[in-house]
Amino acid sequence: MTQLATFAGGCFWCLTRPFAALAGAISVVTGYCGCQAADPTYESVSRGNTGCLEAVQVRFDETAASYQSLCDLLFRLIDPCDDGGQFCDRGPQYRTAIFYHSEEQRSMAELARLRAAGSGRFDKPIVTAVRPFRSFTPAEEYHQDYPGRCPLNYRVYHDASGRPAFLHKTWTFNPGYPPAPIEAPEEELREKLSREAYRVAVLGGTEHPAPGSGAVPKTPGIYVDVLSGAPLFRTQEQVNAAGGWPSFTAPVEPGCVSVRQDNRRSAGRAAVVGAASGAHLGHLVREGASCAAGRYCINAAALRFIPEASLAAHGYT
User: Fold this and answer.
1) Does the annotation count 11 as an active-site position?
2) Assign residue 176 a region: left if phi > 0, alpha if psi is -120 to 50, beta otherwise?
3) Cα separation of the two ends of the chain
4) What percent of the chain has pLDDT above 70?
5) Which residue among the candidates 33, 150, 256, 297 is catalytic per the annotation?
6) Residue scoring higher pLDDT (182 or 125)
7) Assuming Cys at both sites, which of 58, 59, 136, 310 could form a disulfide with 5, CB separation 3.0 to 4.6 Å?
8) Known catalytic residue: 291?
9) pLDDT band at residue 288 under the 50/70/90 scheme
């Protein structure tokens, strides 16, 4: 049997993927709930005076997932203590709520609130409302599965919103992170990337070596994937390389990059690829490496550097 669950958690884009990935999820629709005005649109809801909350409606198989588990997931995706909106999105339309469809759902939603309050994760009162469901209006088509439709736009917004940093700080994990591999339309990639970054990261090219580009920067920080924003390398593992490309002894985590066979120019070359995006990064060089595993020789165009002092502002912790 199937059930409906309706949740408001700030920007409805940010709830789509985590709920869709839940076992038993059948569909996730973004829309507007709790409205006082008829026929809400994104433009009218954005003014903050319609009574509408941005929400998602999840249809799920109750034999594979419980309503309780969905409520618990919501509290791991939001700041339930913020009554003025969520993260960078301010206004009543971004408040959090659980809209129950039955008395059984109301009881489980209230218990989820109590579990969140007693979890020790929050130092302020829980303000997420538990409200009866009245009506739900699906949002415009371009808002449906926005992370899948416009992955680069979504990643930029999501990383800068403050949500990832809060979730990393509050919980031991961040649902939905690292991001799924990006499959963006070619026109979106060309718009977001420089010509050189597109040639290297998307088409698998190699940039011309630049004198001094292989030197270790003086400012501590991390290098992230130019496509997905996933952390890849730290300056602590960067080594001086005479070849003219940034080089590293190891990635941030073993799973953040993958190594694949690349026989396009010479047999046996090992290409380094961003695990989260599939972006071509560079090659693993074993000759004369500074460590037994080899040296990661990376194209600068495939990376974006974030100074340590700016990590929190960009949503990294």
Assistant:
1) yes
2) left
3) 41
4) 85
5) 297
6) 125
7) 58
8) no
9) very low
